[in-house]
């Protein structure tokens, strides 16, 4: 089976199970958003999919093969990862960071090649970072830094990109900038899997939602099919109203809260 799948996957920290017997197939060529309340296991699942966390039970499969039985280099050539809150050495330039995406292709017989240089340049162009390529990463805005990390993942030239909360700590304009970029990358054929907190962004940008509750899948499907007021109440313990997004015609969640308008 092509793509990324799990079978009865369980993931644990220090003996405490976070993800429990989870079976799911990530839709190839689509954008999938993992959503759920804080602590439900979304980031843990991303780590399991990326082989950063070894399963306590079950298996992750990449193109039909157990991911834990594949070499680190082989996985890195198929799957790119943007972890939550990535850090880089002080003074590292944008281009130096992006070039690290080519490390899975280096060995003692094959050093830096014209192909490596080409793919780094392409990643900088796609993310609109060419003019900033010589700037130290720590001098950039939050949105620019996030684009640089995405460019590094692009330079890996993988078909699958996993991103753990790519819009966290960004203002609204930079959130949309990053999400638009990921949409464009998906249109070019990449499979995107990302953890998002904003349900409206998830519904607008994702083709598929995987809703996680207490380490288990609560619902999977297209946003229009599964995003309901009852789901939000059950998963987030939040009363809301769901209306069509006036721009994208996708589900839009309006929280009720304590301050409600009078009839």
Q: Major sheet, described briefly? A: 6 strands, mixed
Helix content: 25-40%
Count of beta strands: 12
Mean pLDDT over the full residue set: 91
What shape does the CA trace take?
globular
User: What portion of the residues fall into strands of 2 or more residues?
Assistant: 25-35%
Structural class: alpha/beta
Task: Summarize the structure in words.
It is a single chain. 31% of the residues lie in helices and 26% in strands. It has a domain at 89-157. The longest helix is centred in the last third of the chain and has 16 residues, at 172-187. It contains nine helices and twelve strands. It is globular, with a radius of gyration of 19 Å. Helix 4 runs antiparallel to helix 5 and helix 5 (142-155) runs parallel beside helix 6 (172-187). The relative contact order is 0.16. It has a six-stranded mixed β-sheet, with helices on both faces. By secondary structure, it is of the alpha/beta class.
Layout of secondary structure:
Elements: E1 4-13, E2 16-25, E3 31-35, H1 42-49, E4 57-62, E5 65-66, H2 72-76, E6 79-82, H3 94-99, H4 114-126, H5 142-155, E7 160-164, H6 172-187, E8 191-195, H7 199-205, E9 208-213, E10 216-221, H8 223-226, H9 229-236, E11 240-244, E12 251-255
Helix pairs in contact: 4-5, 5-6
């Amino acid at each position: 089976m092509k793509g990324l799948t799990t079978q009865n996957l369980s993931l644990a920290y220090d003996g405490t199970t976070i993800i429990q017997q989870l079976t799911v197939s990530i839709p190839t060529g689509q954008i999938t958003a993992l959503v759920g309340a804080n602590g439900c296991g979304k980031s843990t699942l991303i780590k399991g999919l990326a082989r950063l966390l070894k399963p306590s039970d079950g298996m992750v499969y990449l193109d039909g093969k157990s991911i834990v039985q594949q070499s680190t280099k082989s996985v890195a050539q198929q799957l790119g990862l943007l972890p939550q809150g990535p850090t880089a050495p002080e003074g590292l330039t944008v281009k130096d960071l992006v070039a690290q995406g080519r490390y899975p292709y280096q060995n003692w017989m094959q050093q830096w090649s014209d192909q490596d240089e080409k793919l780094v340049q392409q990643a900088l162009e796609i993310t609109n970072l060419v003019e900033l390529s010589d700037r130290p990463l720590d001098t950039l805005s939050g949105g620019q830094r996030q684009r640089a990390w995405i460019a590094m993942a692009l330079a890996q030239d993988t078909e699958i990109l996993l991103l753990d909360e790519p819009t966290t700590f960004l203002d609204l304009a930079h959130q949309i900038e990053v999400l638009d970029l990921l949409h464009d990358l998906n249109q070019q054929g990449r499979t995107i899997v990302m953890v998002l907190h904003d349900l409206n962004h998830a519904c607008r940008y994702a083709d598929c939602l995987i809703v996680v509750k207490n380490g288990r899948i609560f619902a999977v499907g297209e946003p229009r099919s599964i995003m309901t007021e009852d789901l939000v109440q059950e998963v987030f313990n939040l009363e809301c109203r769901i209306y069509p997004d006036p721009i994208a015609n996708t589900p839009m969640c309006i929280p009720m809260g304590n301050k409600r308008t009078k009839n």
